[in-house]
Amino acid sequence: MNDDSSSRLVAELRRWLDSAAAGAQLPSSRTLVAEHGVSPVTVQKALRTLAAEGRVETRPGVGTFARTRPLARPADYGWQTEALSLGTPTTPLSPSALQSVPNDVFALHSGYPDRELTPESLVRAAFRRAARANAITERPPTAGLPDLQAWFANEATTSSDAAAGSIAPSDVVVLPGSQSGLTTAFRALVGAGRSLVVESPTYWGAILAARQVGVRTVPVPSGAAGPSPEAVDRALAESGARAFYAQPNFASPTGANWSPQLRRDLLEVMRSRGAFLIEDDAAHDFGIAAPARPLIGGDTAGHVVYLRSLSKSVAPSVRVAAIVARGPARQRILADAEVESIYVSNVLQTVALDVVTQPAWRSHLRRVARELGARRDLLVAALAEHAPSLTLDHVPTGGLNLWARLPDETRLDRYVAACRDRGVTVGNGDEWFPAEPTGPFVRLNYAGPNPGGFGEAARVLGSVLTDGAW
């Protein structure tokens, strides 16, 4: 069976259907074989593809016809997320993003970048230097190495709209990874039994962290443009929550990057409600078309509590992150961190600081941006060609993944399992919803290994839908 012949025939039949009357009958399979010089198997495969797209319907014993009415767009049930505000579905103990797979599998499920996108030579050199320094035997201050605190403070200022000096090194608390930071922030600023407003969908790790500390999540719908300020305001008012967790830059999983107006509007909501906005900037170093701009830069009253990690951009083994908070909130966070971890490894802090202060660090980030853009575009093109039934609301301007919607009738668990059986792993979109999913989605990481295999992986994603293996 020739995939090129099938793709060519599908394209020809799409053009025919575009101009055909509703209910028009397609030429018989025998006619299509003769006219297009393809095999009967190729014809059947093309017709199955068109049926999966909703372009045709087959009547046994009669023939194949253009659908009598246009296929409706996927229903948008996002409004129900806000109306129901129920955040207690079961989440797998081991989320798909953390699962290991054999080397011969196309891994589109991971949330980490490929080794080729990390500054490996800088990291190795930094570890060698740290091993020869006092860092290997000394205990660091509880809040972190002063120079690393200063670096995080400067980054939050210079890469945002913050006024010079509005973020001080003493506002920074260094933590052992962003997941630890989320747990600390939710426990210190929200508290067990109280409510936290979150985007839906949102980062699965934040959902699990909230549940771990007994925090009730109150979801508001969010998509390619981010959440509605009015929805966030209503959720805060109705739930009594005094905190909102969000990802303004290259959100996982949607890839949303908030507009300047949305940033201003949501900051105003926080001010009017006297609430915290817990800003997760995990994808800070993965901008493609434009750099990340921390929301904390527009806040001078301590409403924004800012979290940034270096574990993905430096190396997975360098579990170093930081929270920027001001006023009593910072004291609560530091007190929780002291109980949770006492301090972060001096060696890891020294290595992280060494890497990000090297002149080659900025050059590395520029190279990563170019490479991510190329990989993203390669996967987008592969999906358009081989899996057109997967819908992309938008192409993200940064981050590591695409957020794709499957046809409404897809049984997501079965689809994910069928793809895995054929050698492709994808992120099960249900894991990113704090309440009931609003449709079948998958998260596809374009930053992982083997981008040359994106075409083959996309063929699997499309063929599983076409074959009805789900």
From TrEMBL:
GO terms for molecular function: DNA binding; DNA-binding transcription factor activity; pyridoxal phosphate binding; transaminase activity. It comes from the Bacteria. Residues 1-69 form the HTH gntR-type domain. Keywords: Aminotransferase, DNA-binding, Pyridoxal phosphate, Transcription, Transcription regulation, Transferase. It comes from Flexivirga aerilata. It holds the Pfam family GntR. This is PLP-dependent aminotransferase family protein. CDD domains: AAT_like, WHTH_GntR. InterPro entries: Aminotransferase_I/II_large (IPR004839), HTH_trans_reg/aminotransferase (IPR051446), PyrdxlP-dep_Trfase (IPR015424), PyrdxlP-dep_Trfase_major (IPR015421), PyrdxlP-dep_Trfase_small (IPR015422), Tscrpt_reg_HTH_GntR (IPR000524), WH-like_DNA-bd_sf (IPR036388), WH_DNA-bd_sf (IPR036390). In the C-terminal section; belongs to the class-I pyridoxal-phosphate-dependent aminotransferase family.
